[in-house]
Amino acid sequence: MGQKKLIKFAAIKAYENVLEYPQGMPGKWDAFFQELAKGTINISLADLAVSQPTKPLVLELACGRGEYAVGLGRLFANQNFIGLDIKGNRIWKGASIANRDGLKNVAFVRTQIDQVTQYFAKEEVNEIWITFPDPQLRLSKAKRRLTHPKFLRLYQQFLTPGGIVHLKTDSPNLFLFTKTVIELYGLSLITATDNLYSSEFMQSDNWEDRYAIKTYYEGLNIASSNRIHYIQFKLDKELPIELEEKLKEIIAEFEITETHDSLARNGKQAME
Ligand SMILES: C[S@@+](CC[C@H](N)C(=O)[O-])C[C@H]1O[C@@H](n2cnc3c(N)ncnc32)[C@H](O)[C@@H]1O
Prior knowledge:
8 strands
């Protein structure tokens, strides 16, 4: 491992706003953010009280450098934000910026998204942002897509009833897949556009600055689509397992229009 990565890994271990695989956190995030705001050093997670949230909690999944967690933290001082990713060197960037700028409502969790239910209590999270996740284009990997019902069922375990999920992606295929999931399971679609910055949505009264926060991967345009796709929907229905066969059949018919896959993304990752 490179020297720079080692330095970043060591740095985040000392940061109050980064928790690596934290144990016993469900129900404690409100108390944690109160300690962070007070400037407490070495916050003892075990001693935090489980309490009803006093502020909305928003989660950014696959946050990378955490542009959304940090950007939203700046825009909404009365909400708390957590960026979650497995890569410590990326989290370091967002956590360092939050520390530098005194954003006490922004924190990061280093862990696997597959383990996400371990960290939040029922109804503890109000919204989820999924920002430029790997589209996992191969059909055999469809279950790894972060908007696959398998993941949506995990999110339902801690999202408030009818809580909102936002997906931003450059991948037309992931966009189509997600719209298909929403339709098949009868979830409430709030907004979907395959060209966010030239959309009617952008011209509408519903537009807010938060939709235009730019992430590192947004700038890379790996899918070569030159379009930012955005979907906002509610996780407001049960997601029966039996429908997964139907979903498999539908998506097997999709034409994959992108030339890139995980390899391209990993290639870019290697250059960082
Ligand atoms: C393409 S990058 C996007 C990063 C950032 N959201 C952006 O837009 O710049 C995808 C991110 O997902 C993270 N990731 C992929 N699979 C993951 C998993 N199972 N658990 C946690 N993070 C994961 C990677 O570490 C990577 O930072």
